[in-house]
Model the fold of this input.
Amino acid sequence: MIVGIAKEIKDNEYRVSMTPAGVHQLVDAGHTVLVETGAGDGSYFPDEEYAGAGAQIVSADEAWQKAEMVVKVKEPLPSEYKYLRSDLILFTYLHLAATEELTRAMVDSGVTGIAYETVELPNGSLPLLTPMSEVAGRMAVQVGAYHLERHEGGRGKLLAGIPGVRPARVVIVGGGVVGTNAAQIALGMGADVFIMDININRLRYLEEILHGRLTTWASNPLNLARAVSRADLVIGAVLVKGAKAPKLVTREMVSQMKPGSVIVDVAVDQGGCVETTHATTHSDPTFFVDGVLHYCVANMPGAVPRTSTYGLSNATQPYVQKLANLGFKAAVQSDPALALGVNTYQGHITYKAVADTFGMEYQQLSIDN
Done:
């Protein structure tokens, strides 16, 4: 198979979808890998390393147009829609439920779109979303602590406090991978941490594994309103697989927060779980609503591309290898987890949560022999 590695063009997105080691694996298996020139520069993988691993260094047009499968990190931007076509496999984070324009472009082009974020194992875990959720969860506390500093517009509170001065209160909405990693870092920094979830068994588990100033709290509108109003830092960590995130933190709740408090909505790449959030970029990451600072960068892990690229490639490489070795049909037929990643196929939406989001027609994935 001819595999294309496209350079990311999203604002301040420095990740690349494959390391030179991954390229070497594909080439060693007999495949051709086309790497767009400069694709790895942001992660400090120069073209020479890819060439040394057996890749051909090509232009953007060649990477897209000659490839049978393009492997990316982020969803295509409008300037890339021209490359979408019916005989192409696109394997990347798609987050279609957050972008109707992209969803319709994918359907209209007939491209086979496999979304990292909906590849799902039998136990319900999301193996290709997990590493970036780990990064984003840990980063959320970092950026939240930084933006609590007064010169950034924050309340001027040190997350850990000091002897005789109370630490900052961190409220984490959602106890999944993002929330758990955020809690680990916040507790390690000495913050007063509240983690909220609707799953009581999950809260029991988190109480067992996390230690420090931790309170677990059942999530409902009243408890959430109380917690948010007292928070110095709120981290939105809610995920509904493949669907738009629910707006659990309302505008009214935000209006009751203290001036200079900070919200980091990690769920923003799926539309956000805070009513007042909208996607921002690394070059212009924050805005204020009712005196509350919002950080809503939709590609947070792009700020730490070296770590993120290794983490992502470690997870995606086996699936890329399977698609290249077996071809799309055989790979999907042999792997139910990969089949759940298929969001668009032959001009149809094949992931129900995406279709439901936009009131579009859903068609169950059917692969002909």
In short: The mean pLDDT is 96.
